[in-house]
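Saturday, quiet lab. Running sequence design on the structure tokens for the scaffold JK sent over.
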């Protein structure tokens, strides 16, 4: 009998120890279930009936003590679970507060880009970084809590928190990429003197500059790095020229691949450049000759005419803004600040961040004007790029990338034009006009480097500018012989 008592006591102790070691399982059961389980275990041994007959009081006491221990463990578990729940609720509230503040700060950061406001952008950037660091602290706090004794639900909370934080970790990566862009911009600005010097020297070829002007070029370029200058405008016009050639060559190659009638396209462009004043002139433009050899100049003329429409207005007539007239000094400073900030930026990356800024609207407007729906469908087989542009987006294609290179060059030239005081005056050679070497430059090179007599303008290719210091950026023209 003593042995049976000892075995029963051990059994009760094991049951109580199991409940204490697994409080969550015990906490989910009702009191009646525990009693049923205990009796079921006890009833497995039929020899215990003798013990119950002689030791009822001892059994009841031990049973009652065991149930008290179970209830105590339940209360401890409930208290601990409530404390855990409160801590998790508090933590999640802090996470959502941080996320909300970071979203507001990021919106302010985007608003500071357009119009460009370096001070607001710097302040918003500090706020975004601060909120991201706060989220990082909350994440570490949660991780320490899970390692320190959260219940089996901890893994689920970790997954949930990761899902909440994941979009903002992606935002951090985007911000890191933006920082890299800014670092590249800084490096480019450091090398601005050398770059502008090379561009200025390239732009001065053929303009008959004096030795004194060449020897003083470094001094003027150094001043141009800190303030707008005519030399900087001339260098930027050289960039426009090169970007225009590149885009036109790509467009012409696509037209040839699509089996366009190049001669017919050239005749259409030539007819579009004709004016009532020039209709009396008769020129020897042979369609087959132009189509086979010089079609690129006619195509470049078409692209240039579309791009430079509205150049004399501060927003290319995209709106009715009159800032340059109401507050001219401030507007000139803002234009040159935008020029310096944008000069080193990749237009594709810029429009990926701010697709609807003023430059983005300019690109959309000019693309829709230059690339007709039938042209795009003929070149690419669909209107996907046009649909994206119409929706306010910017395609990531090679063709649109070349287009953005030219658009950026002309946008920078426009910013410089409105930064200078006085602003450059634009002029264009008309069809049939006499060739004037002081104001015009032939796109076709003649033998000996001199234009023969009797040449007149067949059609203009790009406009010219007269600067405030008296310098002339020559208009580029296609010359033909007079009949």
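Result came back. Writing it out in full:
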């Amino acid at each position: 009998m003593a042995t049976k008592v000892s075995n029963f006591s051990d059994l009760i102790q094991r049951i109580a120890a199991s409940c204490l070691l697994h409080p969550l399982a015990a906490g989910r059961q009702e009191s009646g279930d525990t009693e049923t389980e205990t009796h079921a275990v006890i009833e497995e041994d039929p020899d215990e009936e003798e013990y119950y007959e002689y030791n009822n009081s001892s059994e009841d006491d031990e049973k009652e003590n065991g149930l008290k221990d179970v209830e105590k463990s339940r209360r401890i578990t409930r208290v601990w679970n409530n404390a855990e729940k409160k801590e998790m609720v508090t933590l999640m509230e802090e996470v959502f507060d941080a996320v909300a503040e970071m979203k507001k700060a990021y919106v302010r950061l985007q608003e500071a880009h357009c119009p460009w406001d370096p001070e607001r952008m710097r302040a918003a950037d500090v706020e975004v970084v601060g909120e991201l660091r706060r989220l990082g602290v909350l994440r570490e706090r949660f991780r320490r809590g899970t390692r320190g004794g959260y219940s089996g639900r901890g893994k689920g909370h970790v997954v949930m928190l990761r899902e909440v934080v994941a979009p903002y970790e992606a935002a951090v990566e985007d911000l890191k990429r933006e920082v890299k862009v800014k670092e590249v911009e800084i490096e480019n600005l450091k090398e601005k003197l050398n770059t502008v010097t090379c561009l200025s020297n390239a732009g001065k070829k053929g303009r008959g500059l004096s030795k004194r002007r060449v020897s003083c070029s470094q001094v003027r370029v150094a001043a141009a790095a800190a303030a707008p200058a005519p030399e900087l405008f001339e260098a930027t016009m050289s960039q426009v020229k090169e970007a225009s050639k590149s885009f036109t060559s790509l467009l012409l190659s696509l037209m040839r691949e699509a089996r366009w009638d190049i001669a017919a396209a050239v005749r259409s462009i030539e007819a579009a450049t004709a004016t009532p004043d020039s209709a009396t002139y008769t020129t020897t433009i042979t369609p087959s000759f132009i189509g086979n050899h010089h079609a690129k100049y006619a195509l470049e003329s078409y692209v240039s005419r579309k791009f430079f429409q509205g150049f004399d207005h501060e927003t290319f007539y995209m709106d009715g803004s009159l800032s340059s007239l109401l507050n001219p000094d401030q507007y000139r400073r803002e234009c040159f600040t935008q020029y310096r900030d944008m000069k080193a930026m990749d237009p594709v990356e810029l429009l990926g961040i701010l697709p609807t800024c003023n430059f983005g609207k300019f690109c959309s407007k000019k693309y829709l004007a230059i690339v007709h729906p039938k042209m795009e469908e003929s070149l690419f087989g669909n209107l996907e790029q046009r649909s994206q542009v119409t929706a306010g987006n910017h395609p990531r294609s090679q063709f649109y990338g070349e287009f953005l290179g030219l658009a950026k060059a002309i946008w920078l030239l426009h910013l410089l034009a409105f930064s200078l005081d006085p602003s450059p005056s634009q002029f264009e050679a008309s069809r049939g006009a006499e060739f004037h070497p002081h104001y015009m430059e032939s796109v076709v090179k003649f033998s000996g480097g001199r234009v023969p007599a009797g040449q007149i303008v067949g059609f203009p290719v790009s406009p010219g500018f007269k600067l405030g210091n008296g310098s002339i950026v020559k208009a580029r023209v296609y010359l033909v012989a007079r009949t």
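Notes for JK: The first helix runs from residue 2 to 21. The first strand starts at residue 425 and ends at 427. Ask whether to fix the surface positions before the next round.
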